[in-house]
Design brief:
Distance between the termini: 17 Å
Helix content: 10-25%
Largest sheet: 8 strands, mixed
Number of helices: 3
Shape: globular
Mean pLDDT: 89
Radius of gyration: 16 Å
Number of strands: 14
CATH architecture: 4-Layer Sandwich
Low-confidence stretches: 171-179
CATH topology: Metallo-beta-lactamase, Chain A
Structural class: alpha/beta
Strand content: 25-35%
CATH superfamily: Ribonuclease Z/Hydroxyacylglutathione hydrolase-like
Strand order of the largest sheet: 6-7-8-9-10-11-14-12
Length: 222
């Protein structure tokens, strides 16, 4: 599989002819919107920074959109969504918002995307169902999602092979929203972690590449 970062929490995962996207960025977001075709689109938080299903409906591809908790299977990809909480981009009337943690099984690997998670409290059901994690996408930077320290604490407790930080790129705010964390939050996270860090434009990954990895951090530049 090949994983590329498209800003914020948006990651495109391609394997064979299939394209899956986490948290596609919509128009009117605090980040530049995306524009490509996807077969499966996963939305963790109903906010323009993460719910751009229309933006990944392109060419001959109309994505199977998943926008909340549940169990799904599509084109030999197994997906589980678990209910959690976000404080990102709340309106004045909101105290919290629904966030969905996704566990995706494909090519004999498990990818877990935490979405715009606000705290380290993950349900017992999610922890037991997810099992061993190969790649963990974790939000950092505060402003409604995990702080760098909390993100590191949670990532270590989940024991993934690879940790990919997200939510740190393309800062910016608009009325009624909160912008994504600034690159400085990435520096803080990396400093707190103390692990070796690899920075790449894209990640090409096979199961055999995970041998010997234990919580290594991979920064994908948008």
């Amino acid at each position: 599989m090949v994983i590329t970062h498209h800003g914020g929490q948006c990651f495109k995962v391609t394997f064979g002819d299939l394209t899956l996207v986490f948290d596609p960025i919509a128009k009117n977001a605090t980040l530049p919107s995306v524009r490509f075709g996807a077969d499966i689109a996963l939305v963790s938080r109903n906010h323009p920074d993460m719910n751009g299903v229309a933006e990944v409906t392109f060419g001959d591809k109309v994505p199977f959109a998943i926008t909340g908790p549940g169990e799904y299977e599509r084109q030999n990809v197994t997906i589980q969504g678990f209910l959690s909480k976000s404080l990102y981009g709340l309106s004045k009337e909101q105290e919290s918002a629904v966030n969905t943690i996704y566990s995706v099984s494909l090519e004999d690997m498990t990818l877990v995307h935490l979405g715009a998670l606000a705290d380290t409290a993950i349900s017992k059901e999610a922890r037991e169902s997810i099992g061993e994690i190969d790649v963990l996408f974790v939000p950092i930077g505060g402003d409604g999602v995990l702080s760098g320290a909390k993100a590191h604490e949670l990532a270590v407790s989940l024991e993934p092979k690879i940790i990919i930080p997200m939510h740190w790129s393309h800062g910016g705010t608009s009325e009624g929203t909160q912008g994504m964390g600034a690159p400085k939050s990435l520096e803080t996270f990396l400093k707190d972690s103390g692990y070796g860090v690899e920075k790449v434009d894209k990640c090409t990954l096979k199961k055999k590449d995970l041998v010997g990895r234990d919580g290594s951090i991979l920064v994908l530049t948008p």
